[in-house]
């Protein structure tokens, strides 16, 4: 009996602990539930996205997450993820200041909805525990970001597509967010701004920055950016930046991905890039490199050759021929694009050793010679193959069976004929095939 009594006492204590500390975490705080319902009352929900917002337990509502320890709402994720759907799943209406009652919230995402056009509500700056703030939308603007530095714990900030064209001090404001790790200000209208230098960068934790599609213009100086040595991802796509490639790029020794697409940089890459041993992705599309491809490759960090996964040099005015000396060392490449240059000579068979290659585009050059099955020997992952507008002859063993399954193939102006290639008949996954002007004159298999 004594043993049974002790068991009952222990069981009772355990049950009491459960009731005191665990059960409350399963129900949300009443004032926070009221705040969410007030927010819901201010929006137009045409597709009943918030249909689950009823009953007492707001912690189970769609997009709402609560702390398991305190029961407070810590996350509100109302991002419209169905923007490509024929059905408009957006929320309309106003962003209610009732959200101020969510004092413990650290994650807020209102992106891709259709809330009333106007300035971003400044009361967002009073949600001082926010670590994540995502508000990607075309319908909002801001002329004053002075509320932003109050979010001292902010680590992830993305306001892409918000009109910030009237904000002149955005760099200084962002520099007051020392915990920031990810910054997205793509397509924010930051063009023609005189960007002041920062005496001392506080962005020592910043790893990812996207400033694409802002059309900064050629005179814009980004010296402040090249001093953020923690950066791993930089997107400056379509900003009309001009002049030589910045020497300061070499300071970014942690850099893994660099997108400079659609700018007007001129000349070879600076020698300082030899320090970027972690580089995995590089896109220089539409910049005027104006040089020999072998010399360009020598400017890339030799220590990163075997780490490069994506190399896009589309329309960069490169000449010369491909050298197996660097090509076969790029063993991690899954995307190689050399489209629309003046490259010539033969394509080395060593390209067939790039086992991870998925996307290969060598079109609109002057490559010549013969392509054999050796060129494809180990390309088991290849899905996109574009060789068009080169005077190439593709000759493979009649019994050859490719190791890959293509989804897109473009051989326009290459010589494949006169018979329809037997190996192509095995490519049942192809959805796009261009065989124009390839010399094929026989019947096409059904």
UniProtKB/TrEMBL annotation:
**UniProt cross-references to Pfam families, sorted A to Z:** LRR_1, LRR_8, LRRNT_2
* Membrane-spanning segments: none
Ordered alphabetically, the record's keywords are: Glycoprotein, Leucine-rich repeat, Membrane, Receptor, Repeat, Signal, Transmembrane, Transmembrane helix
**Leucine-rich repeat-containing N-terminal plant-type domain mapped to chain residues:** 31-67
User: Signal sequence span per UniProt?
Assistant: 1-27
The opening ranks of the lineage are: Eukaryota, Viridiplantae, Streptophyta, Embryophyta, Tracheophyta
Write the protein's name.
Receptor-like protein 12
* Listed GO CC annotations: membrane
Asked if the Swiss-Prot or TrEMBL record annotates the protein with the keyword Glycoprotein, the reply is yes
Give the subcellular location.
Membrane
Query: InterPro entries, per this entry?
Result: Leu-rich_rpt (IPR001611), LRR_dom_sf (IPR032675), LRR_N_plant-typ (IPR013210), RLP23-like (IPR046956)
Q: Does the keyword Nuclease apply?
A: no
Topological type in the membrane: Single-pass type I membrane protein
């Amino acid at each position: 009996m004594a043993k049974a009594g002790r068991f009952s006492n222990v069981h009772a204590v355990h049950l009491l602990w459960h009731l005191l500390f665990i059960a409350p975490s399963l129900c949300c705080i009443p004032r926070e539930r009221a705040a969410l319902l007030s927010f819901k009352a201010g929006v137009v929900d045409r597709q009943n996205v918030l249909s689950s917002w009823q009953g007492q337990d707001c912690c189970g509502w769609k997009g709402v997450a609560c702390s398991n320890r305190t029961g407070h709402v810590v996350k509100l994720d109302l991002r419209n993820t169905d923007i490509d759907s024929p059905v408009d799943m957006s929320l309309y209406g106003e962003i209610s200041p009732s959200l101020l009652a969510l004092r413990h919230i650290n994650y807020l995402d209102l992106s891709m909805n259709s809330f009333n056009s106007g300035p971003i509500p400044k009361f967002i700056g009073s949600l001082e525990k926010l670590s994540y703030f995502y508000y990607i939308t075309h319908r909002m603007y801001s002329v004053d970001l002075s509320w932003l530095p109050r979010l001292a714990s902010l680590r992830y900030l993305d306001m892409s597509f918000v009109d910030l064209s009237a904000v002149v001090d955005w760099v200084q404001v962002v520099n007051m967010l020392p915990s920031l790790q990810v910054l997205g200000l793509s397509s924010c209208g930051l063009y023609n701004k005189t960007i002041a230098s920062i005496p001392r960068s506080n962005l020592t934790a910043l790893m990812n920055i996207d400033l694409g599609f802002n059309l900064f213009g050629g005179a814009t100086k980004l010296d402040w950016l090249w001093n953020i040595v923690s950066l791993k991802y930089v997107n400056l796509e379509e900003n009309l930046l001009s002049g030589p490639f910045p020497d300061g790029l070499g300071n970014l020794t942690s850099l893994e991905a660099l997108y400079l697409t659609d700018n007007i940089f001129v000349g070879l890459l600076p020698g300082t890039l030899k320090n970027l041993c972690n580089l995995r992705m590089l896109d220089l599309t539409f910049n005027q490199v104006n040089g020999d491809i072998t010399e360009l490759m020598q400017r890339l960090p030799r220590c990163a050759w075997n780490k490069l996964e994506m190399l896009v040099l589309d329309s960069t005015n490169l000449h010369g021929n491909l050298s197996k000396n660097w090509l076969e060392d790029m063993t991690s490449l899954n995307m190689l694009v050399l489209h629309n240059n003046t490259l010539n000579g033969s394509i080395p068979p060593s390209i067939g050793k790039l086992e991870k290659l998925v996307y290969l585009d060598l079109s609109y050059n002057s490559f010549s010679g013969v392509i054999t099955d050796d060129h494809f020997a180990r390309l088991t992952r290849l899905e996109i193959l574009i060789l068009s507008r080169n005077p190439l002859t593709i000759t493979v063993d009649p019994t050859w069976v490719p190791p890959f399954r293509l989804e897109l193939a473009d051989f326009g102006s290459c010589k494949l004929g006169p018979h329809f290639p037997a190996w192509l008949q095995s490519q049942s996954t192809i959805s796009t095939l261009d065989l124009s002007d390839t010399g094929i004159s026989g019947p096409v298999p059904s």
